[in-house]
Write a structure and sequence with these properties.
The chain is α+β, with helices and mostly antiparallel strands. The protein has 4 helices and 3 strands. It has a single domain, classed as Sufe protein. Chain: A (Alpha-Beta Complex), CATH 3.90.1010.10. The structure holds zinc ion.
Length: 152
């Protein structure tokens, strides 16, 4: 009987082989590029935000299976969500990676419940500090794109 580790590996490979929301979005969609020089990973995040909702997200780039599958799962997890939910999701994910997200001064942590879903498959990465940067690259790039999308 396959264990949880095998199931997680399958989910990661599935997202790596069949990445979700692959592509680009034309302006005025926000666009951010992230690099992880330690591993050579590159991630492009295109974000369409209408009002308070992430209406569309596309991901490009190349790199290791952890970075690319994390980006695919991220795109799936944030599409259709509110900006507040997405910020909560970023905190939840980074918490799973043992990273305490710093809050801008005067800002409180969003108090919404979000489920990680497929993203839980990446929790084993926390045991490999070098790979944490691979797993969080898409999320840091997402935050940059989100900042651009909401600053206008
Ligand atoms: Zn990597």
């Amino acid at each position: 009987m396959p264990g949880l580790e095998d199931l997680y590996r399958e989910i990661i490979l599935d997202h790596y082989r069949t990445p979700r929301n692959r592509g680009e979005l034309p302006p005025p969609a926000a666009h951010a590029v992230g690099h992880n020089p330690l591993c050579g990973d590159e991630i492009d995040v295109y974000l369409q935000v209408d009002g308070d909702t992430i209406t569309d997200v596309k991901v490009g780039g190349q790199g290791c299976s952890i970075s690319q599958s994390s980006a695919s799962m991220m795109s799936q997890a944030v599409k259709g969500r509110s900006v507040t939910e997405v910020r909560a999701l970023v905190r939840r994910f980074k918490g799973m990676m043992s990273i305490e997200e710093e809050l801008p001064e005067g800002e409180r942590a969003p108090e919404v419940e979000v489920k990680l879903g497929d993203l839980e498959a990446l929790q084993g990465v926390v045991k490999f500090p070098v790979r944490i940067k691979c797993a969080t690259l898409a999320w840091n790039t997402l935050i940059e794109a989100l900042a651009e999308a909401t600053s206008a």
